[in-house]
Amino acid sequence: MGVSSRMLCLYNLPVRGLQMQYGGLSAGNKAAGRSKVTGRVQSESAQKAQRAACFPGLGFFYKANKEVYNFVEQKITIEEGIDSYSGMIWPAALALCHYLDTHRERVNFVDKAVLEIGAGTGLVSVVAVLLGAWVTATDLPGALSNLRVNLSRNTRGRCRHTPQVEALPWGHDLESTYPTSVYHYDYVLAADVVYHHDFLDQLLATMKHFCRPGTTVIWANKVRFESDLTFLENFKKAFHTQLLAEDGDMKIFMQWDLAMMTK
Ligand SMILES: C[S@@+](CC[C@H](N)C(=O)[O-])C[C@H]1O[C@@H](n2cnc3c(N)ncnc32)[C@H](O)[C@@H]1O
Questions:
Q1: What is the atom index within ligand 1 of the atom nearest the CA of 90?
Q2: Structure confidence by residue, pLDDT tens digits, 172-181
Q3: Spacing, Cα 231 to ligand 1 middle (Å)
Q4: CA 254, 260, 262 angle in degrees (round to 5)?
Q5: What is the CATH number of domain 5-12+83-261?
Q6: 110-113 long-range contacts, CB within 8 A, separation 24+
Q7: With CB atoms 3.0 to 4.6 Å apart as the test, which of 45, 127, 191, 224 could cross-link to 92 if both were Cys?
Q8: Using N-to-C axis directions, what is the helix angle for 91-102 and 123-130, rounded to 10°?
Q9: How far is the CA of 118 from the centre of ligand 1 (A)?
Q10: Pocket test residue of 71, 85, 219 for ligand 1, highest count of atoms within 8 A of CB
Q11: Residue 57 pLDDT > 60
């Protein structure tokens, strides 16, 4: 299915609406604010935390913002970080968690090997773990400590498989760090990894690297920029693609290796 220009209307889902729709518990306490740079909608407390973190020498102390969600019948507490990309929960993460939680038969994660790329705070990975998957959550090296804290705090004592956290810079030396002969995943997850950045080619290369026969990629993204549509077109050329769900500009796609379709 194609994406029309009508869908390019920007950032139309405030945090409050999103959280209530997709499992958030703390929506009632929030006042939403928007970053002009990223379009990312932040809670007032997240903005305060970020401001404080910017001025440690002036007597401000960074206090992480915590968000509480309810997925897979579990309370999930996510500590956000100071990075405005990896440290925040983005809208597609909430949409994907909601989808996975409400489609457990269609996407059965029990005992499946799942890789998340650009995992950020780790909310999607936590939900995958709680759904029974063996999860490897990945991101840039600087994002891993917060990711590790969130994975560990929310899965300890309530998972079938202990999750792993690894560095995975997109497109970087993939065959030597993640050789295809060794690493095989049933699912690759990605939420809001397509936005205005310079690594879209590397991102697609990473998706292709991990999407082997038998692998399903589930990619959720809010369509924001013209370049997002270009990525989507390239993505459709590389994979057999199905639109699983959409809610305005929010899309969730499932894709398979094109070679699988010829078998
Ligand atoms: C917009 S955030 C989305 C985070 C999370 N998936 C979510 O939806 O809440 C994009 C994520 O991609 C990661 N990222 C950006 N560029 C990357 C790169 N070149 N290699 C690996 N990860 C990258 C960021 O660190 C960040 O965690």
A1: 9
A2: 999 999 999 9
A3: 16
A4: 125
A5: 3.40.50.150
A6: 110/160, 111/160, 111/161, 112/186, 112/187, 113/184, 113/185, 113/186, 113/187
A7: 191
A8: 10
A9: 4
A10: 85
A11: no
